[in-house]
């Protein structure tokens, strides 16, 4: 059979007759042939690699989002890779440079620490890029985000409705766009309710151990200064808070009502099931990949940047329900 027929089989198998495909597959198997993907990419001018640069990987939420992205990418014959910037712009720059050198299919950015020079490089090299949740809208790139201002408002309003009058937002880091938006929404809800106070309480990280440490610090203030409602920046913090408080004899939710954020699986499975703000990671991940493929297929210079905002949902469980 001709070289052209074999080439069709390797690159566009749907154009080859079934009987011919079986013969070529048998020949490939007998020869032990392994396709050189790097060489194919050089000839084609681009790879099928998609990179997702996440903000953090210790939060199961990002793992579930990445899983949804990977499954959607596979349907488009794309190879999916995940990296973590860990708040280090230099490290993120290296990831971006690597993708550019490999002529990657596209980039999903969620770290929130991307340098302007890297954005400029992506635009100049025409690397399809989607901003995922951690950035202000940019007219050069499509984006998908969750309305964290609404989520923060939902969380604080729920605590107020449960009778809380001293509310603390644990895990605040106003340098992180999502957390600043949650704080803004929560403060607005408390202010609108009237008769309640709102406080920001920062933590060095957003983990279970950090939640435990925050609970100890709040208890050290003494009973008169303890809040009766806590909005945790994520579910890991909320789990740590609940664990530490219950071990020290603080009743949840009778003494302090607690609500988290993300609605990870562990929140519902905690010893006291934790209320949370649900961020729909399945549709979030799918939408990010769809935006990326749309961007890649759009002719250079053609309009079509999209900014999609997904609304979160309040999930009420035992950790906050007093009424």
From TrEMBL:
Superkingdom of origin organism: Bacteria
InterPro entries in alphabetical order: HTH_LacI, LacI/GalR-like_sensor, Lambda_DNA-bd_dom_sf, Peripla_BP_I
Record Gene3D superfamilies: 3.40.50.2300, lambda repressor-like DNA-binding domains
Keyword terms of this UniProt record: DNA-binding, Transcription, Transcription regulation
GO molecular function (one): transcription cis-regulatory region binding
UniProt keyword Cell cycle, yes or no: no
Domain HTH lacI-type span(s) in chain numbering: 1-44
PANTHER family: HTH-TYPE TRANSCRIPTIONAL REGULATOR GALS, LACI-RELATED TRANSCRIPTIONAL REPRESSOR
Descriptive protein name: LacI family transcriptional regulator
């Amino acid at each position: 059979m001709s070289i052209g027929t074999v080439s069709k089989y390797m690159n566009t198998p749907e154009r080859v007759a079934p009987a011919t495909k079986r013969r070529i597959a048998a020949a490939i198997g007998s020869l032990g042939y392994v396709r050189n993907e790097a060489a194919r990419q050089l000839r084609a001018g681009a790879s099928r690699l998609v990179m997702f640069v996440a903000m953090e990987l210790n939060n199961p939420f990002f793992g579930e989002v990445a899983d949804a992205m990977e499954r959607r990418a596979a349907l488009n014959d794309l190879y999916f890779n995940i990296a973590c910037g860990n708040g280090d712009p230099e490290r993120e720059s290296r990831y971006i440079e690597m993708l550019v050198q490999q002529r990657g299919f596209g980039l999903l950015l969620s770290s929130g620490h991307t340098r302007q020079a890297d954005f400029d490089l992506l635009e100049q090299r025409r690397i399809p890029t989607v901003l995922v949740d951690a950035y202000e809208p940019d007219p050069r790139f499509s984006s998908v985000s969750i309305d964290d201002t609404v989520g923060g408002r939902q969380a604080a309003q729920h605590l107020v409705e449960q009778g809380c009058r001293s509310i603390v937002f644990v895990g605040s880091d106003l340098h992180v766009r999502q957390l600043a938006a949650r704080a803004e929404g929560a403060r607005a809800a408390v202010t609108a309710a009237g008769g309640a106070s709102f406080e920001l309480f920062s933590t060095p990280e957003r983990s279970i151990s950090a939640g435990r440490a925050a609970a100890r610090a709040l208890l050290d203030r003494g009973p008169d200064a303890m809040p009766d409602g806590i909005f945790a920046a994520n579910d890991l913090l909320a789990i740590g808070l609940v664990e530490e408080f219950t071990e020290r004899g603080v009743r949840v939710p009778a003494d302090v009502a607690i609500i988290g954020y993300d609605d990870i699986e562990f929140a519902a499975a905690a010893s006291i099931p934790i209320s949370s703000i649900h961020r729909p990671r399945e549709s979030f991940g799918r939408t990010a990949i769809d935006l990326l493929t749309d961007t890649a297929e759009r002719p250079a210079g053609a309009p079509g940047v999209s900014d999609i905002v997904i609304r979160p949902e309040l999930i009420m469980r035992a950790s906050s329900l007093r009424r």
